[in-house]
Amino acid sequence: QVQLVESGGGLVQAGGSLRLSCAASGSTFGIVGNGWYRQVPGKQRDLVAVINSGGNTNYLDSVKGRFTISRDNAKTTVYLQMNSLKPEDTAVYYCNLVTFYNGIRREYWGQGTQVTVSS
User: Fold this and answer.
1) Sign of CA dihedral 97, 7, 23, 68
2) H or E element in which residue 8 lies
3) CB neighbours (10 Å) of residue 105?
4) Of the N and C termini of the chain, which has fewer Cβ atoms inside 10 Å?
5) Handedness of CA 95, 38, 44, 42 (dihedral sign)
6) Contact 2/28 with Cβ under 8 angstroms?
7) From CA 99, how far away is CA 75, in angstroms rounded?
8) Cα distance between residue 46 and residue 44, in whole Å
9) DSSP string, 51-89
10) What is the dihedral of CA 78, 7, 3, 34, to 10 degrees?
11) Spatial CA neighbour of 83 closest among 15, 9, 8, 30
């Protein structure tokens, strides 16, 4: 099992910055990807940013140029640097970890951290 613990959410004014962190512990073998998703009440959970095992990244169009995903060399801690925040970025942000080990794909989620951007 893997446990994901997020931190770094909070309240910020539009134009400000926040940095989210997500630390994984437990059986972190075969990590193939780390990602951040976000969700607002009544809507689906959307992919914000992802980084795969090769270090390739992909972003939601609306955050390109403002958000940056990164991780440590062990791939167990992933970060989301969020700059030039907008009120529409307000959501609960969840980190995600995908592993593939012994032929089994597993997916894990953090508990979520609230990001609120005031106008």
Assistant:
1) positive
2) none
3) 10
4) N
5) positive
6) yes
7) 11
8) 6
9) EETTS-EEE-GGGTTTEEEEE-TTS-EEEEEE-S--GGG
10) -20
11) 15
pLDDT in tens, 38-73: 999 999 999 999 999 999 999 999 999 999 999 988
Residue with the two structure tokens 């640097």: 81
Question: What are 65-113's pLDDT values in tens digits?
Answer: 999 999 988 888 999 999 999 999 999 999 999 999 999 999 999 999 9
CA nearest to 22, candidates 78, 61, 71: 78
Tell me the two tokens of residue 105.
């794909």
Contacts of 115 (CB under 8 A, 6+ apart): 9, 10, 12, 18, 20, 38, 82, 85, 89, 90, 91, 92, 93
